[in-house]
Amino acid sequence: MSIIFFLIGCSVFIALIFLGAFFWANRTGQNEDMYTPSVRILFEDEVVEDEKVLEEGVRKTDKK
Amino acid sequence: MSEVRDLVKGKVCYHCGDKVEDTPYLLDNRTFCCLGCQTVYQVLNENNLQSYYKYNQHPGKSQKENTADLSYLDESNIAAKLVDYKDDKVSIITFYIPVIHCSSCIWLLEHLYKLNPAVAVSTVDFMKRQVSITFKHNELSLRELVTLLVNIGYEPKITMQDVVKEGKKINQKDLIGKITVAGFCFGNSMMISFPEYFGMAEFERQYAQFFGYMNLAFGIPVLLYSASDYFKSAWRSLKQKRLNLDVPLALGIFVLFFRSALEILTNSGAGFMDTLCSLVFFILIGKWVQQRTYYHISFERDYRSYFPVAVTVLEEGGERPIQIADLQVGQRILVRNNEIIPADAILLKGDASVDFSFVTGESVAIEKTLGEIIYAGGRQIGGAIELEVVKPVSQSYLTKLWNNESFKTQEKKFDTFIDFISKYFTLGLIAIAGVACVFWLVGGDANKAWGAFTAVLIIACPCALALSSPFTLSAALSIFDRNKFYIKNTGAIEQLSAIDCVVFDKTGTISSPKSSTMFFEGELTETEWSLLSSVCRNSNHPLSREIVKWLGPCTVVPLDAFSEITGKGMEAISGRVEIKVGSASFLGVKSVNEEGSMVYVMVDGEVKGYFTLEQAWRKDLSLVVDRLKANDYELHLISGDNARRSDALKLIFPASAQLLFNQSPSDKLQQIDAWQDQGKQVCMLGDGLNDAGALRKADLGIAVSDDINNFSPGCDAILDGDSFAKLPSFFAFAKDAVKVIHMSFAISLTYNVVGLTFAVQGTMSPLFAAILMPLSTVTIISFTSLTTRWFARRRKLIG
């Protein structure tokens, strides 16, 4: 049963890594702006020429 | 099909979507309302940024307004104040750009590098309407950068009070870190405590000590880091001899840790470390909920956020921009179209037509004559004017308000229910713990005495109580928010419920700047009526259009001669009748009253009457007044305007209401003070900078605004003009919210009493504490949010 020391050690260690990751994210301001990235991700590098398809897409996002 | 679409498109400006009737601005088969919009389109087209128009239809904002002079940005001491960071190569600056409103805005502002390669990165924060730009200042000066933004229609708002920088001061990162650590320790110590609760077989006992030490290891960061604020706050309040709720909380946390550590180290028990972690975790969440605030609305604005950073000074050597703070008496300043007059000054040259809407809420420009003193805060409309400063900026008629005592105190402190209750709670708690301890000591059982004493302090730790107020009030806050009533913090809601006297400002508050009504005093014959209409039809001046609208449909009389002098009036001859329409000075008559814009009508040298343009009352004003009156609120009106329309107001307001006119900004402040001295809890509703003193002095200051992204004076809450009719419901709902707090207080007290009956007997087990603490918390959180929503539904604030 001594394996339990090792297992608990592992689980706490992994949890600590996530804790550290959260602190890193928080410190680098990743939680500061919760809205803009959701818009930014929908931009294309160059908007496609086919206007119809795009307008349809825009209309859908507008409705939301 | 496409033709039809083009026709439809042709009626609005391709850039901003404004209606276009007849326009010379045509490009690529697209119509524009003005040269500004067309230029933006051209700039974007040349740089391959047409996608801007594809993400949204007509994403632009009208460019009809002229742009300001930017030469002050070349002054290095001003520029240094504005930038966030600067090294040899790059500068970083954050601008507040109020026109940011759609995804196209984000797209364009983040593609600035395509317009100018000297821009390295630009990042938009949509909610705050800010853009942060990193640029190479050797290749692109700050002025050129701002010019670039102005050219594409995104003029940053640069003012004396840097709202952007002040917004950055609000920082919750520290609290979030503490919550994270507490949550992490809570989860882990809970897991490690499970074996203890489920019971361990004899051979498993060897692990108990290991689990104990692990628990202790999780408890230490919670005590030293996460809970540190409570100890600091408790210590501070003890030093001030005031007992706030943090005192019993800190005491409970400390006793929990101390007793658990003792039990673990002496191997005499399992301790309550998981309870400690969950307690700290929950109360920190309560704190976070309470501190959550609007990042995109600033409640702390003063006159500095209305005033520009710099003004142009005329010196022998020519023009020079200087910082407003450095402006001295006797200096000659040049104020261009759309610029703000920064200090009380005498008009020396030019036609001054000053819009005081920032100050009074009245948006009609007022004409000033040479030699007249113009108070600071007005915005010049028309050509450039020259003035001589007679008072320094901080001593102006308007700004000296901020030298008043009530602006010196840091923050308004609201009396909250929790503050009131915590004093008695703490004393009662210590008394019970002491009695239990003494009782067992007398009985000769020192162990039980220690157990009972600590258990009382642990179990009665007012965790649920500390949560009831933040959760109720933040639920209420989000309901107010949905109804376009933005309250600064949760304390202000409790203050709102205590109000018994409501004071209104007139212009812009109970009247709406959006809608206005024409009044005519005098008499016109039918022929004069249609003649007037025919004359006014020829003018594009907004007042002429209002007059045409007011006159209604009439027969058009042909005019033999017509001339218009911009900003003054018109004269026309039809047959043998000569008609003159315009300002008093244009007609050469004495003005009947000084304020507001008036249009006189003169036929054959005889004044027939005059038009005045007045703001219309807000819809439902009388309904709001009636409902507030029915709920026994005292109502008053306090206006900087003259008593012109007092008769109409007397009909709306109850007889007991005081209607005060011609009040200066400091009169308003003193009047509020006088009502407060009578023991009333005063709520002031105002909109302009001249109300700033009263808003600050009042127990609760509400700024009424028709566009919350616009600037409004410093206050405790901002009410969107559209929601004005709901005001009585807001007052009633605030009272409901406080009722919910009282009820949840009763619930948490019941939990405490149940816990205490076990605690005083010295029979509290760790498992019991571990269940009771989260259970009471969950009850309170769900009770408060559900009841608050129920009340909101009853008040018809949510559907």
From TrEMBL, chain A:
Give the domain of life: Bacteria
List the InterPro entries hit by this protein, alphabetically: Cyt_oxidase_maturation_cbb3
- One Pfam assignment: FixS
Q: Which residue spans traverse the membrane?
A: 6-25
Is Transport one of the keywords UniProt gives this record?
no
Keywords, sorted A to Z: Membrane, Transmembrane, Transmembrane helix
> Do the record's keywords include Transmembrane?
yes
Against NCBIfam families, the record matches this protein to: ccoS
What's the protein here called? Cytochrome oxidase maturation protein, cbb3-type
From which source organism is this entry? Answer: Sphingobacterium wenxiniae
Taxon lineage: Bacteria, Pseudomonadati, Bacteroidota, Sphingobacteriia, Sphingobacteriales
TrEMBL record, chain B:
Which cell locations does it reside in?
A: Cell membrane
Mention any Pfam family matching this sequence. Answer: Hydrolase
| Membrane topology label | Multi-pass membrane protein
Q: Which UniProt keywords apply?
A: Cell membrane, Ion transport, Magnesium, Membrane, Metal-binding, Phosphoprotein, Translocase, Transmembrane, Transmembrane helix, Transport
Entry's Gene Ontology cellular component terms: plasma membrane
Keyword Transmembrane present in the record's keywords: the answer is yes
The P-type ATPase A domain covers which part of the protein? 308-402
Its Gene Ontology molecular function terms?
ATP binding; ATP hydrolysis activity; copper ion binding; P-type divalent copper transporter activity
According to the record, the segments passing through the membrane are: 175-198, 210-231, 243-262, 268-289, 424-443, 449-480, 740-761, 767-792
Indicate the segments forming the Putative metal-binding domain, all copies. Answer: 13-85
- PANTHER family annotated for this entry? ATP7, ISOFORM B, CATION-TRANSPORTING P-TYPE ATPASE-RELATED
Q: What is this protein called?
A: Cu+-exporting ATPase
